[in-house]
Model the fold of this input.
Amino acid sequence: MLRASYSIDRNNQSKVDQEGLSKTRKDQVMILKHKQQDAGTIYTALINIQRQHQVGELSSCQAFDQLRSIAFGIVSHESILFGKAVSGKVDGYTYFFSDKHDRSDLVYWTQTKNVVNDLFLHNAASMDKGSIIQGDFTSGVKDYEGLKGGYALIPTFLDKETHSFLVLLNANLSDLDDCCEILKQLAATFEMIYLSECRLGGKVEGGNGKSKNEILDMLMKYSSDAIGVFNVNWSPKFLSPSFEHLFGFTREQLMNPSFFECFRSEVKDMKKVVIDGIERYRFTNLNANKERMWLESIFDTLYDDDGEIQGHMAIVRNISEEVKGDKKMSEALEKEIALNKMKSQFISITSHEFKTPLSTIKSSIEICNIELQRQLEEHPSEQKFKKHFNRVNNEVDRMNSLLVNLLNLEKINQGVIQVSSKTKKINSYLRSVLEDWVDQDAVQFETALPDDFTHPIDVSLMNQVMTNLVENALKYGSREDDVLVRANIAEGKLIISVKDYGDGISKDEQEHLFKPFFRASNANKYDKGSGLGLMITKKFIELQNGTIHFESEVGEGTCFYLTFSLT
Done:
């Protein structure tokens, strides 16, 4: 195996040649599985690549590409990476390539490099001994669905604390059996090209970073987007002033690697979107005030003149307001869908509800007409007339109630209801609105309010509320027990309740009671209704800054409570 002690000059190069030729003799008879080339041909090609790079005929990028082509001929695999590790920790990648994934595929390469980092950490001791590590993606390695085949890590040594290594991913493990020595030579050639490039100054990290940052600050300080330049491991090398305005942290904080790693760990909800053919990433992160922001970023990979990866650049902008706008549009769309559904229900119900009373009215009028056409000497039945006239009257009232509810519903949907509250003596108001029912012994009214107690109400809205609640109580309540209406003050609130002693409402149906067109399953044995009354009642109470709730037990009845704050 080649080591860093071999300098790239003609004396040491001859040592490299001799070692390569020695290995060639050992593997001379090996037949490569895909290219059908002998090992000697490969060793000769590796030496030629080193020489051409040394004399400037090949750039480092061109040399790496030729080495990659040789690697694909030796072992069937999908991706290849050449990286460096310092003190047992991966420091970065000088070269990577995949026949299925472009270098700009941020998701694939980020996750792939994380997997390789994990592999290196788990096998550091064996790699220190120069062993080739091979296996498949099982326990101890981060799962990534794109990596399901075998892998091989071939280490070389740059110095006592520094390793370089070649990685083959999704590799055919059966190809590796007879190729270990030639793979070591391939990795060593990668290492030699890297060392030579570093010596020639083609890949020197750092440089006069301060002046670069000053120039970038001058160019970017007026940008509303946050612009960052990162090394191959995504540690920040430069952050534009907009980062401070965007997140509220100072650049000094964000440039600290440990702080920046904690900052990155708060990234959530990552997803990729394509807009105008450009890949963008949307995600959330926390600012200095612990507020979660929606962000959109464009990432790009930075290369030097020879095509080698130098790092990454990210342009980030705040899209929280756009997301809120999208959310509002989504909510508006949902409301539109719900409204259309409600309109469809309305058409279905009202077509039936109008048809029934009209048919009844028509038939009753026809019967009355027949009675009137009888011979004069025959007296029409008084009971028949009363029966049919009562039916006509009831159905007209039913149609009128339905039309009133529909009109109120439309006003609510359009938001055109005007509230006109006036101070009223509550006892006097309730007695007047309940008078007819009390006279018929259908309703009892009890009050704990002083006679001069007043509260602002909208009489028109409250009349509709009380009518809906009392008529419901009479319809669904007990025929033996009167409906009970009470008024009192409790905990600084005016409370008006309407209680019946009917069948009650089952627990699983109670949550739907204030929804439009809903009728409880046990309501079918009573007179039909539109299912709009309680929804309208709730809206009318809320328009007067009140609340409504109810308590109900099956077999015990139901009580509705109207509550108004006195403060």
Notes: The first strand starts at residue 79 and ends at 86.
